[in-house]
Write a structure and sequence with these properties.
The protein has one helix and nine strands, in the order H-E-E-E-E-E-E-E-E-E. By secondary structure, the protein is mostly beta strands. The chain has one domain: Immunoglobulin-like (Sandwich), CATH 2.60.40.790. It has a four-stranded antiparallel β-sheet, with no helix packed on it. A three-stranded antiparallel β-sheet has the order 3-4-5, with no helix packed on it. A hairpin with a 2-residue loop joins strand 1 and strand 2. The radius of gyration is 22 Å and the shape is elongated. Belongs to the small heat shock protein (HSP20) family.
Length: 145
């Protein structure tokens, strides 16, 4: 359904810890997320605290869902910054979706700093019953797959 690991994410996190998010890498910061299945939907929740929903951009190309968002620093440009621990800048994440998901019907909502995506399981991937006929009794029997 969803690729569970991003081989470069851990490397990016460690590099950011060592170098800080000073723009040295000039790479977008990864977003924290949870993903779980509820019924026939894959639910993905991404933490985007302090992000203006107007800066969130979602794109799907083939089986890749790209999420980009921007959080601007609240300090004016001429301010003397004493402490800056909250990350600002561009955040991004790519999710590799399986063929079993219906990327045409993704629903997105944003509430209290959390982006929630609902991605339905494709109809062709849902379990179904197959009817068989024949045999001595001539009756029909349903077999679950």
């Amino acid at each position: 359904m969803l690729m569970r690991t991003d081989p470069f994410r851990e490397f990016d996190r460690l590099t950011q810890q060592v170098l800080g998010n000073t723009g040295v890498l000039n790479r977008p910061v990864a977003m924290q997320m949870d993903a779980y299945r509820v019924g026939d939907d894959l639910v993905v929740q991404v933490d985007l605290p302090g992000v203006d929903p107007e800066t969130v951009d979602l794109d799907v190309e083939r089986n890749v869902l790209s999420i980009r968002a921007e959080r601007r620093s609240p300090a004016p440009e001429d301010a003397e910054v004493i402490v800056a621990e909250r990350q600002s800048g561009t955040f991004s994440r790519q999710l590799f979706l399986g063929d079993t998901l219906d990327t045409e019907r993704i629903d997105a909502s944003y509430d209290a700093g959390v982006l929630t995506l609902r991605i339905p399981v494709a109809d062709h991937a849902k379990p179904r019953k197959i009817r068989i006929s024949g045999g001595d009794g001539g009756g029909r029997k349903a077999i679950s797959r």
